[in-house]
Automatic annotation (TrEMBL):
The keyword Cell wall biogenesis/degradation does not apply. Pathway: Amino-acid biosynthesis; L-arginine biosynthesis; N(2)-acetyl-L-ornithine from L-glutamate: step 3/4. The gene is argC. The keyword Protein transport does not apply. It catalyses: N-acetyl-L-glutamate 5-semialdehyde + phosphate + NADP(+) = N-acetyl-L-glutamyl 5-phosphate + NADPH + H(+). This is N-acetyl-gamma-glutamyl-phosphate reductase. Keywords: Amino-acid biosynthesis, Arginine biosynthesis, Cytoplasm, NADP, Oxidoreductase.
Amino acid sequence: MTRAAVAGASGYAGGEILRLLLAHPTIEIGAVTAGSNAGERLGALHPHLVPLADRVLQDTTPEALAGHDVVFLALPHGHSAALAATVPDDVAVIDCGADFRLESGQAWTRFYDTEHAGTWPYGLPELPLTGGARQRDQLAGARRIAVPGCYPTGISLALAPGLAEGLIEPDDVVVVAASGTSGAGKGLKAHLLGSEVMGSMSPYGVGGGHRHSPEIEQNLSWAAGAPVTVSFTPTLAPMPRGILATSTARLRPGTDPAVVRGAWEQAYADEPFVHLLPEGVWPRTADVVGSNLVLLQLAVDAHAGRVVVVSAVDNLTKGTAGAAVQCANLALGLAETSGLPVAGVAP
Ligand SMILES: NC(=O)C1=CN([C@@H]2O[C@H](COP(=O)(O)OP(=O)(O)OC[C@H]3O[C@@H](n4cnc5c(N)ncnc54)[C@H](OP(=O)(O)O)[C@@H]3O)[C@@H](O)[C@H]2O)C=CC1
Ligand SMILES: CC(=O)N[C@@H](CCC(=O)OP(=O)(O)O)C(=O)O
């Protein structure tokens, strides 16, 4: 068996990692750690994780995380670098935070306003790259992996096939996405009060202000092999989980609409977690809840000369914890799909 420690186990992402690891055939759960909730029993914080109810959360220290084959970090941004530095090089560290996702130190400083910790291999295995490669090539056997943000996961996979195949213009990409409230974490925040969220949708980070803008542009630029510019608008939706993103881009002049669908079909034909739905069936967040799936559908808007791609992910599963387990599987040489659900919970 392989032993895993989970730091941030009292939070939403940490709890979801534990839920998935409970069903994992070869990874067993070792230390579980937290911040202010250290000393609490998991059963008090995650009543749904019944088999772990009596496990006591430890302080998040290098000593608690020592002696494992893989360490999952599900901590707020900025907490990963110092801890990861204490983990031996031969132990896999899978970081759910943003600290090591960006190549550009300049983009990091602009959006996170702290010193850039560095760059680790980016944990989106299915991402098609220019020239026919896949992002997973960088993840097999890796010992440090940065798990993507939840919005960049569905959005990058929605548009990458068209960019990798040169079908869409890199300078006219527009994305509007709605996220469930768990995307913001478990901490109390005024804009997440029930009376603010229930029965209402709200935009935020409008005008290129969201920190996922540079992450999405980075991923799409890897796919295109050239810089890509994105206008991204997130919105908060009154649901606990799920992201529905609508991504549109201008088709290159002369692109035959008939080849567009084929590019996406081909890109994901062999991917167990990324599915282009049958024509005319559109993704819904309910269809991905609790699963490691990305569901996609697209249409060519011939009048506007654009392709419109809709993607749905569960922000806590494929958007964080599922991706983290998938990356751990790749890092440790296990079957990539081990322990990962491929069916959602609809309706
Ligand atoms: N929620 C989502 O959909 C996604 C989250 N992520 C990333 O995953 C990470 C965790 O997010 P999420 O679970 O939502 O956040 P939560 O706020 O739900 O959980 C944060 C966790 O970090 C712990 N923590 C906070 N401060 C400290 C500290 N100083 N020392 C040790 N532990 C600490 C908390 O412990 P305690 O509560 O006991 O203080 C808790 O276990 C973040 O980096 C987030 O950006 C990435 C993609 C999507
Ligand atoms: C609804 C909501 O607030 N969502 C979060 C995104 C969460 C995520 O992807 O996490 P990272 O912080 O790890 O990038 C936000 O927009 O800030």
